[in-house]
Amino acid sequence: MREELISLREEALRDIAAVTNTPAFERVRIAYIGRAGRLTQAGEKMRHVPKDDRPEIGKLLHEVRQVITGALESRAAELRAAMEAAELSGVDPTLPGVAFAAGYLHPLQMLQKQVVEIFRRMGFALAEGPGIETEWHCFDALNTPPDHPARNEQDTFYLPDGRLLRTHTSTVQIRTMETQAPPVRIIAPGAAYRRDEVDATHLAQFTQIEGLYVDEDVTLGDLKGTLEYFFRELFGADTRVRFRPHFFPFTEPSYELDVRAAALGGGERWLELAGCGMVDPAVFERVSERRGDDAYDSRRVRGFAFGFGLERLAMILFGVPDIRMFVENDQRFLSQFSR
Length: 339
What we know:
Elements: H1 2-18, H2 22-33, H3 38-44, H4 54-88, H5 107-121, E1 125-126, E2 132-133, H6 135-138, E3 164-165, H7 170-179, E4 184-193, E5 205-215, H8 220-235, E6 240-248, E7 251-260, E8 271-279, H9 281-291, E9 302-309, H10 310-318, H11 331-334
Parallel strand pairs: 1-4
Antiparallel strand pairs: 2-3, 4-5, 5-9, 6-7, 7-8, 8-9
């Protein structure tokens, strides 16, 4: 057994030294220290060694195993070094490096980040909801009757199971009120979908940002002050804001909001940028029915809501003539907004 182990050690060292590539190295490794390798077989023969010789033979077996394992590790390191050297042999370290352009945010992402930061300073929390919605969340809860044009299949993307792609992020307001009692103060940016013909001012998918504030003693003055502050922070202190009476099913009274500022074409004309109003009591009633409590009793709480499209805002602010430029991924266009 002693001579067999010594012979095994010498053969292993010769075979390891002769290895020149990774496949050959793996074959040698398995042949000697694999599960059925020669070292494993030698260990199994220990039970046939006389009891008096076992300490000496066991010690020799351990030494042979260490020698072979160490030789394998050393040879593996040499092969890796040779492989790396071969890979780098064609590289000229004196050549100048290749500069990689740094990435940057899409202009819509940049503007959305700025909008959210302004509202956060006013205490609004960020809220999210699913893009695929139920008719109840998208229309019924928002006081939009079944005969309303928005519920027409030609205006909205319906799925075979009756659900739909949300037409506005007002659905997030409803879902928030379902799970959270007043006070509620949220901002809900996200994608909305409508069957619009794609042209210079319309896309089938667009980004909408909506806000909701519900508490006791909320007034129209709070709504006006909030939006005036927001647009002045966004466009500058010279910004002027005006409200025009309008109609939305889910707010009463309702208003269109116009803005005039130097940042928007020199401030010479009024531009319609948002819709807003006080939350209609019918919306609170629908939410209360779903919740099964009186947390949104319209005799006790009031609220306001507002919303605007981010693409339209970006087009005006950045002077972009065609809304399709935001989705064409043309680097010549997008690189103009890098910072």
